[in-house]
């Protein structure tokens, strides 16, 4: 009878393995087809432009109005293979996706291998792999030039190395050295991998300190981690060229890390609990699973896994893997739910945490089934009861896994790029045929990186160029991609409203415009010149004011940056002076050599003053009007022209608009006549 039951169980396991293996293969085939036609994402194309530049021998970085060395997105372990793919096969949709495809195959292998190494049956390992691949966001962030899956591959490979095949084995110094190297590769792929690598190495350090030869083992782990990191930093130093540039690069990265990690935000007003609930609801919206179910999905495996990790009857290598997965996954979700800034609660930043949780769940399922909790002093019925309770607690966890699979697009909906994404190839082909001496523009952050990649043309930043410089260029074009069209129509209007242009190509996924003459700002409309719509002053601390040009959006309900050319339309009758409060930032007048910028304030027939801006900080300026009072209120145009701007920072996501000073308020006032 027992032999018959074992045979039936074996048959069921084989059938389940074939079924889940077929689903994994089906998903992989869908990804291969996807890779043949799909363009990379916006951020992914920025990564791939770095690979393309390196393949062409232009350096490690990408060009957008200037060459940005080592843009802090995804790094060497992804970029270098992508550069090799471009060097071998040229820049095509497939070569832009093939490295991601390779890492997906590697993820399948390492998840199955790691799960089997800790005693998970093959069929359950394949189920866990299928759950990973069907998780919402997996298609988007495993392909398209992203580095999230490469990070996970290196990290899980390190854990696999730490778990020897022998049941009682503990990692020796050789395994620790290799694991450290793999952790280093994960960190080099994306700095965000520190969320995984740092706690994993802390767990290992605590374990090593309880073992013989602990210093030798710690050194092996540290040397393994440091070897690729130091080699890459030497390469970075050589590429950037000078110690000053190298230090500046790292200073900017630390600022970005502090801001994006949440370390720079206190959120005291929001509250710890309310922030966690808010972020959990955001995750529920992104995954299609209710927030209470997600809470169970996260908490139950962590609690049960902790029980097995401290149970000495659990095999040593299983306890090690559980300890690492528990600590890393728990901290990952804690960071995303309670610490990460609200503006950065993206699915992309938690997708690795979800995949790690799937891996943890299959290990916990097996340990719960095979190893009842409780000492030998307990009765068999008590131990079976405890196991039944634990298995019952895991039921909603598995249900949540199935709900995530249903919400994903790999099993129920094969991956397919939308038609508007494919439009970018048409725009890129059109851009490629433009004259070689043509100057091609994006605007601000919206640099159309996919179109730049596939057209193999360098783009300039429209926001960096003054009207005089733009008008000096004879053959100039403006390009948008699907992200600009879908997210930032205002950026498109800002360019076109200042330009005389003709449309060469207009699709849902992008457009190409030929630009002619450029104005400093869009002209005022008749509504802007109607005194009934105007005010004699503006105060950004009280409210916004729409009758202005060349002044950026109001910030913090306090002030607004002024461009190098700006104008404001006010209402004037008998006022005889202008009072203006501005703030001159230190970055405007400080630099390698102290500058003396000048502000020219004019109004036709009434005002023409040149003001040196040599004093930092907030200051109030009074300027007399030279024209007679008007008997009836009329529109009064005030023009502001600065001869310089805040220096650009060599950081792709820095605020590099043509900015001069901050405007707090301005008002036309009546002052007593001078005797």
UniProtKB/TrEMBL annotation:
InterPro entries: LipidA_mod_glycosyltrf_83. It comes from the Bacteria. Keywords: Cell membrane, Glycosyltransferase, Membrane, Transferase, Transmembrane, Transmembrane helix. The keyword Transmembrane helix applies. GO terms for cellular component: plasma membrane. GO terms for biological process: lipopolysaccharide biosynthetic process. The chain crosses the membrane at residues 12-32, 101-124, 145-165, 185-209, 218-238, 289-308, 320-340, 346-366, 386-405. Its main location: membrane. It is found in: Cell membrane. It is a multi-pass membrane protein. This is Glycosyltransferase RgtA/B/C/D-like domain-containing protein.
């Amino acid at each position: 009878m027992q032999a018959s039951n074992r045979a039936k169980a074996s048959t069921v396991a084989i059938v389940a393995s074939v079924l889940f293996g077929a689903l994994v293969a089906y998903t992989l085939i869908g990804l291969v087809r996807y890779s043949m036609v799909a363009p990379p994402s916006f951020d992914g194309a920025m990564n791939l432009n770095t690979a393309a530049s390196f393949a062409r021998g232009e350096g490690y970085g990408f060009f957008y109005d200037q060459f940005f060395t080592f843009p802090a997105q995804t790094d060497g372990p992804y970029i270098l293979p992508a550069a090799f793919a471009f060097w071998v096969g040229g820049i095509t949709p497939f070569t832009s996706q093939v490295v991601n495809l390779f890492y997906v195959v590697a993820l399948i292998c390492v998840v199955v291998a790691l799960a089997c190494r800790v005693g998970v049956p093959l069929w359950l390992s394949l189920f866990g792999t299928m759950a990973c691949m069907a998780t919402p966001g997996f298609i988007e962030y495993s392909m398209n030039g992203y580095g999230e899956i490469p990070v996970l591959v290196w990290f899980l490979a390190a854990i696999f190395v730490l778990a020897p095949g022998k049941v009682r084995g503990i990692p020796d110094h050789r395994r620790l050295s290799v694991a450290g190297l793999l952790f280093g590769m994960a960190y080099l792929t994306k700095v965000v991998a520190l969320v995984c690598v740092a706690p994993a190495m802390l767990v290992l350090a605590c374990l090593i300190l309880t073992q013989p030869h602990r210093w030798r083992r710690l050194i092996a782990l540290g040397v393994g981690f440091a070897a690729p990191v130091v080699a890459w930093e030497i390469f970075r130093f050589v590429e950037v060229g000078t110690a000053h540039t190298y230090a500046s690069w790292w200073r900017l990265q630390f600022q970005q890390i502090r801001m994006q990690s949440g370390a720079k935000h206190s959120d005291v007003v929001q509250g710890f609990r309310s922030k966690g609930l808010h972020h959990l609801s955001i995750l529920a919206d992104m995954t299609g699973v209710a927030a209470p179910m997600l809470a169970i999905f996260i908490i139950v495996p962590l609690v049960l896994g902790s029980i097995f990790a401290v149970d000495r009857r659990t095999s040593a290598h299983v306890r090690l893997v559980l300890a690492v997965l528990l600590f890393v996954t728990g901290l990952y979700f804690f960071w995303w739910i309670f610490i990460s800034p609200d503006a950065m609660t993206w699915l992309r930043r938690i997708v690795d945490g979800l995949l790690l949780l799937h891996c943890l769940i299959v290990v916990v399922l097996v340990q719960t089934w095979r190893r009842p909790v409780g000492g030998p002093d307990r009765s068999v019925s008590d131990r079976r009861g405890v196991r039944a309770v634990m298995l019952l607690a895991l039921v909603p966890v598995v249900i949540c896994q199935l709900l995530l699979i249903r919400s994903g697009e790999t099993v129920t909906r094969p991956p397919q790029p939308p038609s508007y994404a494919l439009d970018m190839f048409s725009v890129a082909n059109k851009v490629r045929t433009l004259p070689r001496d043509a100057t091609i523009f994006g605007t601000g952050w919206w640099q159309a990186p996919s179109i730049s990649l596939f057209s193999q043309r360098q783009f300039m930043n429209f926001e960096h160029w003054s009207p005089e410089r733009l008008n000096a260029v004879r053959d100039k074009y403006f390009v948008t991609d699907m992200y600009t069209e879908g997210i930032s129509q205002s950026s498109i209007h800002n360019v076109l409203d200042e330009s005389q242009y003709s449309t060469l190509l207009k699709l849902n996924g992008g457009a190409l415009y030929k630009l002619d003459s450029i104005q400093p700002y869009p002209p005022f409309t008749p509504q802007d010149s109607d005194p009934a719509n105007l005010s004699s002053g503006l105060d950004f601390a009280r409210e916004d004011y729409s009758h202005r040009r060349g002044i950026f959006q109001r910030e913090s309900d306090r002030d607004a940056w002024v461009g190098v050319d700006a104008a404001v339309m006010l209402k004037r009758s008998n006022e005889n002076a202008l009072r203006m409060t501005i703030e001159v930032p230190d970055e405007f007048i400080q630099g390698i050599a102290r500058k003396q910028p000048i502000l020219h304030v004019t109004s036709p027939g009434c005002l023409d003053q040149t003001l040196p801006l040599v004093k930092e900080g907030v200051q109030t300026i009074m300027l007399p009007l030279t024209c007679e009072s008007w008997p009836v209120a009329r529109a009064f145009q005030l023009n502001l022209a600065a001869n310089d701007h805040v220096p650009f920072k060599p950081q792709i996501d820095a605020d590099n608009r043509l900015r001069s000073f901050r405007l707090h308020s301005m008002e036309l006032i009546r002052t007593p006549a001078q005797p």
